[in-house]
Amino acid sequence: MSRLLPLAAGAAAALLLLAGCAAPIDTSNAERVDGAVTVPASDLALAAEGVVLEQGFTVEIDCGSADVPLEVGASVECSAFDPATESTGGYVVTITAVDGTDYEIEVVGSEATPQPAPESALESAQAFADLTAQAITDSLGEAPFVDCGTDDIEIFEGQEVRCAYETSSASGFVVATVTSFDGSFYEISVVEE
User: Fold this and answer.
1) Distance between CA atoms of 8 and 122, rounded to whole angstroms?
2) Which of 7, 48, 83, 118 has the least CB density, counted as fewest CB within 10 Å?
3) DSSP code at position 129
4) Is 134 left (phi over 0), alpha (psi -120 to 50) or beta?
5) Three-point CA angle 7, 192, 119, nearest 5°
6) What's the CA dihedral at 112, 66, 108, 96 to 10 degrees?
7) What are phi and psi of 34, to 5 degrees?
8) Is the separation of the CB atoms in 61 and 45 below 8 Å?
């Protein structure tokens, strides 16, 4: 029997591709350096965080500390980190329009770098008991009541959980073993004790 855990594995979507997200930016920090107007990359990072936030994602963006020429087409590669999912990704922030010291940017992101699957996760005792009951229903001839306790169960490959079962004609104990776990999905095998 198998079960999909409602983990944050899909949450890495926070750093997914943002193509063509543009926004006007307050450029009060733009300055003239050696005859050229530049903007600090850190300002572009803050502006990009705002653009991404408008799309519903909260990420920390770092574009470095260099100055970027304030001209159409100037761009900087940035790294991004989503603290909620601990995923990383990248963005390219490009200046798309300039009017004096006012400018607009476009933020284009890359796919999130997936983080390694967690080695374990927690599952409610009731959900684990329900899965165990499904696994033994056919062999018992009816759906049993299964009790695996009240504490959340740590899910990892090889985890063994002793559960009590009861039907209208029998009762006993089973051992449910997690046979595979990929970070968000696990399978169990169940044997009678």
Assistant:
1) 12
2) 83
3) H
4) alpha
5) 25
6) 170
7) 50, 45
8) yes
